Amino acid sequence: MFLVIEVKFGTYVAWLGIVALWLWIVALLGEIVALRLGIVALLGGTVALWLGIETVRSRIVAVWSKIVAQRLRIVTFLFPGVIFLFFCINKKLINGKKSVYLWKIQVI
């Protein structure tokens, strides 16, 4: 009878050891999953940071393009006048018998 109780107790201990090993494997898998989730969260944070940087960069580009557009408006507004002035400086305008030289600012 003592042998039977010992065998049963040994079987229970073995089963408890198997259950403990199984729980340890499940915990290890849980830690691996948690590690993967942590890596995914880290990657998500990196992507969010990159998107934030891109948002700031796009705002800077938008402000810069506004400034460039305003300067281009000024240039395109002045461009025909500048062309006309260069034309007048390099050529003489004949108005009847009068010649106008803009670089001398005199009318003959």
Any overview of this molecule?
Keywords: Membrane, Transmembrane, Transmembrane helix. By secondary structure, the protein is mainly alpha-helical. The protein has one domain. It contains one helix and three strands; from the N terminus they run αβββ. The chain has a three-stranded antiparallel beta sheet with strand order 1-2-3, with no helix packed on it. A hairpin with a 2-residue loop joins strand 1 and strand 2. The longest helix is centred in the middle third of the chain and has 89 residues. The chain is rod-shaped and about 120 Å long. The C terminus is likely disordered.
Please outline the helices and strands:
Blueprint: H1 2-90, E1 93-95, E2 98-101, E3 106-107
Antiparallel strand pairs: 1-2, 2-3
Short description:
The chain is mainly alpha-helical and 108 residues long.
- Give the helix proportion (percent range): over 70%
Uncertain residue ranges: 104-108
Structural class: mainly alpha
Our measurement of the CA-to-CA distance between the termini, rounded to an integer number of angstroms, reads 141 Å
Largest sheet: 3 strands, antiparallel
H and E order? HEEE
Overall geometry comes to rod-shaped
| Beta strands, count | 3
As an assembly, this protein is: single chain
What portion of the residues fall into strands of 2 or more residues? 5-15%
Order of neighbouring strands in the sheet with most strands: 1-2-3
Alpha carbon gyration radius? 43 Å
Record keyword descriptors for this entry.
108 residues, mainly alpha, three-stranded antiparallel beta sheet, 82% helix
